[in-house]
């Protein structure tokens, strides 16, 4: 009796396995029909910003974000161009020292503060500011912030793109993410705070008391 | 100060927490004189909205006296104000278009990370409603810090007592917007699911906008009676099959517009409700949507669906085919409160709208936990609870 029972269970499992295999087969066939047979040999670049492409080719991690800010392009450019303004909305930037084209930044990081030194490599008034790290910098990075007029009445589109070689490679990037210090997270929040500052004159907080 | 805090599912307590102070230039501090418990608070009480932290102060329907103002506030000490539950900056893309609940600036930047992956976009800030919408301490408290006090708060003329104007903070504009979103035309048949405060104000608004017949659906006799008093026909879904009845009451074509004023915790003994509830109990993110499914099935071809009821996550067995094939219009959203407050205050002042019929219980703030429990488990008798900080005994 128990032997018989056992064989029955086995047959049951076998049937289920067969069913799953049949379903998987059907799914694979459907995928082949729609995707496989409609193969595209070459994909010309589309209109998305370069930072969003799926095929990264270099050691740099590229992060970026666009925000719409209800303020004139020239005001936003001028505010950003004076780097001493940046700590007012960049949570992670402590000290900024500017001398000529070279700026040095102190940024707290999970494994101790990082000193970044950058030089302006492109400065187009009211359009773009681009920078690149110098030899003396702890981190190899380059980036740019671009200011474009949005549709009439909508203000300015501000886009920041930062490329950097993650310290300690991919592992370092994970650790930074866990501490919410990763540039993608920081950059996103910083741009939102810039937007708040320009549109509302203050930075939103749910804190009920001053520190 | 004393404030009602969330401690966990079905556990809320009045505790002593630090008084708020002015933090940003546009802030004001309000000393609360009246504050209500909302059906939305029950979603928090039941633990079906994610993003609460134990100790959070709840409450988003409140009014009171201005006691402190930041340098950029336009309010004056001593003014009586009703505060919209939506926190709106008044300056962003959305606020400029009067889509106040979509404000892009009121939710703090780090909190926006919570709703952006969930909804594709970050939500605006709301008082006392989880960290998805900013984690702002709420109004079931003695004092509240009100951001952007030059935009939101509505100054109330002397002579209009609290009970007449308190609901301008949420449910009155919510019922109004629910009806507006149904694009009601003269003579329309409009069906409203839920005779809670939101459903009742939607009934009242739909009739004011010219509906020929409003049909209100619920299971609680007291609530159905309030709807009847406003001028609605009613369906008790425990007695009567809703779909067939609506067809019979609309000449066989179905209601021109349907309003879901139930939201994510619909009840009713139906297979979809049972599955939805099981999923809600094993994890967050699943909505129970029997009322919405029924509303979509009921609406006539080419009709309009308005959804003021709150949903937070995902849903299956959704009648997407009916939605598409019938060519209907769907409008939704947290209420753009600031868009409606002035007009509705005027209507209250003129005696065109009464809101006091709704209040079944007034309690001191200290009894807030009892208010939650009864509003949740004695829905037939407890239709709306107003808390009065600073008062002693229950009235
Ligand atoms: N959009 C907004 O800005 C906004 C504002 C306030 C409230 N809300 C939401 O509106 C909804 C209603 O709020 P409320 O304060 O009236 O809540 P409530 O809990 O007092 O009322 C809900 C009513 O729905 C009834 N109901 C439950 N299942 C039903 C079903 N299957 N068919 C018909 N009726 C059913 C209940 O019996 C109850 O009377 C909630 O989801 C709330 O979160 C939305
Ligand atoms: Zn409410
Ligand atoms: Zn705004």
UniProtKB/TrEMBL annotation, chain A:
Coiled coil, from the record: none
Coenzyme Q-binding protein COQ10 START domain ranges (all copies): 69-184
Record-linked SUPFAM superfamilies: Bet v1-like
Pfam families reported in the protein's UniProt record: Polyketide_cyc
Family matches, as CDD domains: SRPBCC_8 (cd07817)
Top-level taxon of the source organism: Bacteria
InterPro entries tied to this protein: COQ10_START, ORF3, START-like_dom_sf
PANTHER family for this protein: POLYKETIDE CYCLASE/DEHYDRASE AND LIPID TRANSPORT SUPERFAMILY PROTEIN, POLYKETIDE CYCLASE_DEHYDRASE AND LIPID TRANSPORT SUPERFAMILY PROTEIN
Protein family according to the UniProt entry: Belongs to the ribosome association toxin RatA family.
UniProt-recorded name of the protein: SRPBCC family protein
Source organism of this protein record: Paracoccus albicereus
From TrEMBL, chain B:
Needed cofactors: Zn(2+)
Chain ranges of the Alcohol dehydrogenase-like N-terminal domain: 25-153
Sequence ranges assigned to domain Alcohol dehydrogenase-like C-terminal in this UniProt record: 197-264
One Pfam assignment: ADH_zinc_N
InterPro entries, per the entry: ADH-like_C (IPR013149), ADH-like_N (IPR013154), ADH_Zn_CS (IPR002328), GroES-like_sf (IPR011032), NAD(P)-bd_dom_sf (IPR036291)
Keywords from the UniProt entry: Metal-binding, Oxidoreductase, Zinc
PROSITE patterns in the cross-refs: ADH_ZINC (PS00059)
Family that this chain belongs to: Belongs to the zinc-containing alcohol dehydrogenase family.
Protein name (Swiss-Prot/TrEMBL): Glutathione-dependent formaldehyde dehydrogenase
Organism: Paracoccus albicereus
């Amino acid at each position: 009796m128990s032997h018989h029972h056992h064989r029955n269970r086995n047959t049951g499992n076998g049937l289920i396995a067969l069913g799953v295999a049949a379903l998987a087969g059907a799914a694979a066939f459907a995928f082949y029909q729609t995707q496989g047979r409609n193969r595209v040999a070459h994909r010309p670049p589309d209109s998305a910003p370069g930072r969003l492409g799926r095929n990264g080719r270099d050691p740099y991690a590229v992060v970026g974000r666009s925000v719409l800010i209800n303020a004139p392009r020239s005001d936003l450019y001028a505010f950003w161009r004076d780097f001493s303004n940046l700590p007012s909305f960049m949570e992670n930037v402590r000290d900024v020292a500017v001398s000529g084209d070279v700026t040095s930044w102190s940024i707290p990081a999970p494994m101790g503060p990082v000193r970044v030194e950058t030089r302006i490599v492109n400065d187009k008034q009211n359009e773009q500011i681009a920078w690149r790290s110098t030899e003396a910098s702890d981190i190899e990075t380059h980036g740019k912030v671009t200011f474009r007029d949005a549709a009439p009445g909508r203000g300015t589109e501000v886009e920041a793109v930062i490329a950097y070689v993650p310290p300690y490679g991919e592992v370092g990037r994970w650790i930074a993410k866990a501490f919410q210090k990763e540039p993608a997270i920081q950059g996103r929040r910083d741009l939102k705070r810039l937007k708040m500052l320009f549109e509302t004159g203050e930075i939103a907080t749910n804190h009920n008391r001053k520190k | 100060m004393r404030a009602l805090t969330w401690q966990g599912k079905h556990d809320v307590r009045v505790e002593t927490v630090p008084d708020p102070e002015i933090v940003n230039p546009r802030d004001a501090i309000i000393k609360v004189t009246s504050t209500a418990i909302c059906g939305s608070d029950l979603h928090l009480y039941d633990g079906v909205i994610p993003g609460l932290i134990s100790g959070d102060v709840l409450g988003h329907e409140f009014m009171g006296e201005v006691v402190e103002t930041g340098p950029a506030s336009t309010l004056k000490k001593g003014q009586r104000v009703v505060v919209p539950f939506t926190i709106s900056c008044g300056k962003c893309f959305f606020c400029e278009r009067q889509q106040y609940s979509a404000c892009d600036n009121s939710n703090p930047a780090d909190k926006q990370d919570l709703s952006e992956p969930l909804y594709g976009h970050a939500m605006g800030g709301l008082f006392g409603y989880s960290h998805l919408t900013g984690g702002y301490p709420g109004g079931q408290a003695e004092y509240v810090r009100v951001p952007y006090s030059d935009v939101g708060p509505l100054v109330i003329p002397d002579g209009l007592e609290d009970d007449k104007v308190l609901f301008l903070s949420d449910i009155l504009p919510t019922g109004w917007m629910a009806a507006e979103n149904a694009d009601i035309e003269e003579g329309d048949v409009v069906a409203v699911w839920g005779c809670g405060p939101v459903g009742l104000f939607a009934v009242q608004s739909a009739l004011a906008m010219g509906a020929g017949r409003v049909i209100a659906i619920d299971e609680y006799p007291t609530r159905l009676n309030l709807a009847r008093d406003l001028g609605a026909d009613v369906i008790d879904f425990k007695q009567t099959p809703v779909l067939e009845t609506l067809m019979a009451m609309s000449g066989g074509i179905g209601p021109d517009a349907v309003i879901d004023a139930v939201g994510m915790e619909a009840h009713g003994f139906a297979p979809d409700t049972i599955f939805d509830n099981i999923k809600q109990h094993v994890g967050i993110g699943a909505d129970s949507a029997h009322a919405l499914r029924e509303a979509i099935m009921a609406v006539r071809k080419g009709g309009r669906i308005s959804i003021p009821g709150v949903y937070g996550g995902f849903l299956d067995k959704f009648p997407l085919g009916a939605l598409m094939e019938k060519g209907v219009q769907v409008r939704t959203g947290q209420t753009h409160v600031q868009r409606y407050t002035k007009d509705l205050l005027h209507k209250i002042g003129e005696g065109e709208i009464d809101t006091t019929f709704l209040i079944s219980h007034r309690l001191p703030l200290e009894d807030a936990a009892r208010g939650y429990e009864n509003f949740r488990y004695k829905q037939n008798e407890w239709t709306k609870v107003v808390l009065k900080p600073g008062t002693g005994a229950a009235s």
